Amino acid sequence: SWKAALRGVTTESPEISKSIVNHVQTSLARAPYNIDDFGAYQAAALSVRDNLIVNWNSTQLEYSRKSPKRAYYLSLEFLMGRTLSNALLNLGVLDNYSSSLSSLGFSLEDILVQERDAALGNGGLGRLAACYLDSSATQELPVWGYGLRYKYGIFQQLIKADDGTQLEAPDPWLDHQNPWELPRLDVTYEVRFYGNAQRWDEGTGRATWSGGQEVLAVAYDVMIPGYGTKNTNNLRLWESKPKRGFDLQSFNAGNYERSVESSNSAAAITSVLYPNDHTSFGKELRLKQQYFWTAASLADMLRRFKHLEKPISQFAEYNAIQLNDTHPTLAIVELMRILVDEEEVPWDGAWTIVTNTFFFTNHTVLPEALEKWSVPLLEHLLPRHLQIIFDIVSHPAIIRESSLFLQSVEKKFPGDREKLSRLSLIEEGFPKQVRMANLAVVGSRRVNGVAELHSDLVQKNLFPDFVEFYGKSKFGNVTNGITPRRWLDQCNPSLSALITETLKIERNVWLKDLYKLEGLLAHVNDSEFQARWAAVKHQNKERLALFVERQLGIKIDASALFDVQIKRLHEYKRQTLNILGVIHRYLLIKSLKPEERKKVVKKVVFFAGKAAPACTLFKMSTLLPLTIRLIVNVARVINADPDTNQYLSLFFLPDYSVSLAEILIPASDISQHISTAGTEASGTSNMKFCLNGGLLVGTVDGANIEIAEEVGEDNVFFFGHLTPDVEDLRYQHTYHPIPVEEKSPALAHVLNTVSSGIFGGDGVYEPLLNTVRQGDFYILTDDFDSYIRALEMVDEAYSDRTEWIKKSIRTSAKMGKFSSDRAIQDYAQEYWNIESVKL
Ligand code: 26W
């Protein structure tokens, strides 16, 4: 069915077939007659790569020739997923390769799934970076990404069969040769750690940093093709390796083990992606990663800038650097170091360059996610950088500004010492800590959040004093976006084909101008179109059902309502609310007479998502694996209950990934985005579901709000308390607690049923249940009844199938705003001030 949707034309090209066979024989050194699907994938990938390399070269040549202002996207995470299908689509050769492969006896569908995901990210922040690269190349903007080439990406999640606990296994994604990267073994930089920083005579602000450990950064380039353009940008990933393979002296002294030791510690820097999102642990190796990456990237940018032979004072006119959250904030300090110590730029001039170069995006307001590095650790690892941080704090200009500011504060709020301490880059305490977010704000030209509500909270709750200090214009909003190439055309080819046919415009037009989807509104009442729209959804649900049957061996009824929540597990995302709601539904159906049950809307609930590996130091984090256990064990019971299992079933799909999302999202009727109001900065999967005609149950949070603005509130199922209420409710929980039994008898019943042990566990769930009963920081008890009502509204709406289909069409039609093309244009114009470069 999937292949049938591939627009079916025979476009076999003898050249492509020849190139694939040629790669089998030469690059793979194998005989073409006994090649398997994986070999065919490798050969096809190498053949496609040849095209990418040609385009990549012409693009980079053109950039050098025209020397436009460039933007650099610094992100510790790029969650790319698979590349082959994306490269085929963007190059416009999907049909040709499909035909050629089938003439060689392979099916493209089978070949595509051979590829392992490149999973160098945790979740939203990393996938956003990947979408932005696709859009930058598509808009022909001179944007490069810089990141780390982790040997191991996000861990693989296994769910233990007996008790439903999460196990983590390494992700050896580079075990097979990676055809999508070009090793640049000649592009290397030395990066220093530890050592001594010696200040020069007073006045210059300069210093010399020497000694310590030096490691080598080696570049690997990943080609990023634009859609429907030759422009092919670059994602440069750094690998760490020892500067000298062997310390000859100790080698000669016969100490072989010690001589390879240094190589171990250098390689460790880029060995693994930290799997914790939204929590900062202050680990030295993580700080090493951050500095290694920012130092190599800046050295590379500076080398490129020097080829232009422009005065260094013009650096910010040729370069914009986007900081993806605070993770690359050291780049601000490193550029100061280079300018002051190496380029001999006077301190003030250097600060002007720096503050015109950087832009900072915040992605979360959760306090536990705000990075702080201890002063002693920084002093040990990066002594010169700590000096610079202190110089920034105490620089005369800043003191002058801040004392002016303080004078005005003093007038308005006499004696407000706290204000000064909130503005400080250094947090008092034992040890003192550097607040990376404050440093990022001070060192950047502009600061933005990722959705309207979030950007508002960034200004009002996170940095109110900085807004007062710098004025409002330094702060802005860029609502996130998603690439419609991967998240509609690739993952849902049938829907894409139907849209193209209905709009009567070329696919490559609406895929580049997603507002064109509004043209679908003219067809909302066309019953034949409705039927085809519904048939596509059904076909995608059958594809998912087949996938689950193969994975878990359980048959699924594709005519049921598919309800999906897939995202990292986190307290604030409230997967717990969802599973408690499922239990509520189960108990309700169970309590009905067999006759009455027949009226129930059939539903299949899907969960997927990884929990940060449990860390014994942090009691909280052990609750997330507990949520998975609860889901898995509830699933076991209700899927086996013959009274109810034709009306309600439940699945936890292990090892959530970009590729799994590509199967789940097109198949969803309804998806859940149910964070406590004010906690989810934006969310991006909400956009993906809606683009594919899925409706949304959600709180009034993040981008849900803007989605509702676009599609109309009658097409989303909102529930729960609003952001301004949350603080009051938490205050109430602390000082005037009301027992769950009183607040929500329905929820109390659910909690007691879990405690009673019908889902097993022998009391293991008590700590999880108790966070709901007491404290309840994420206000599940306050939102539960309203949540259940919203789900009842979903049932009701789904029962009128024609109305539902109309809602689905209207939703998809109004997703134009959420294309990452729009978001990238925003950054290009309002932040980076860069223009496209035509080849
Ligand atoms: C230091 C540990 C750490 C690691 C990652 C802290 C914070 C993060 C990220 C900023 C977390 C993240 O991915 N945030 C998500 O970013 C998405 C893209 O903007 C948003 O859509 C999500 O709402 C936000 O949670």
From TrEMBL:
Keyword tRNA processing (UniProt): no
Gene Ontology biological process terms from the UniProt entry: glycogen catabolic process
UniProt entry keywords in alphabetical sequence: Allosteric enzyme, Carbohydrate metabolism, Glycosyltransferase, Pyridoxal phosphate, Transferase
An example Gene Ontology CC term for this record: cytoplasm
Reactions that this protein is recorded to catalyse: [(1->4)-alpha-D-glucosyl](n) + phosphate = [(1->4)-alpha-D-glucosyl](n-1) + alpha-D-glucose 1-phosphate
Domain of life: Eukaryota
Documented EC number(s): 2.4.1.1
Coiled coil: none
Residues carrying N6-(pyridoxal phosphate)lysine: 688
Cofactor(s) this protein requires: pyridoxal 5'-phosphate
InterPro entries membership: Glycg_phsphrylas (IPR011833), Glyco_trans_35 (IPR000811), Pyridoxal_P_attach_site (IPR035090)
GO MF term list: glycogen phosphorylase activity; pyridoxal phosphate binding
Keyword Calcium: no
PROSITE patterns with a match to the protein in the record: PHOSPHORYLASE
Similarity annotation: Belongs to the glycogen phosphorylase family.
Function: Allosteric enzyme that catalyzes the rate-limiting step in glycogen catabolism, the phosphorolytic cleavage of glycogen to produce glucose-1-phosphate, and plays a central role in maintaining cellular and organismal glucose homeostasis.
Protein name, UniProt field: Alpha-1,4 glucan phosphorylase
Species the sequence originates in: Russula ochroleuca
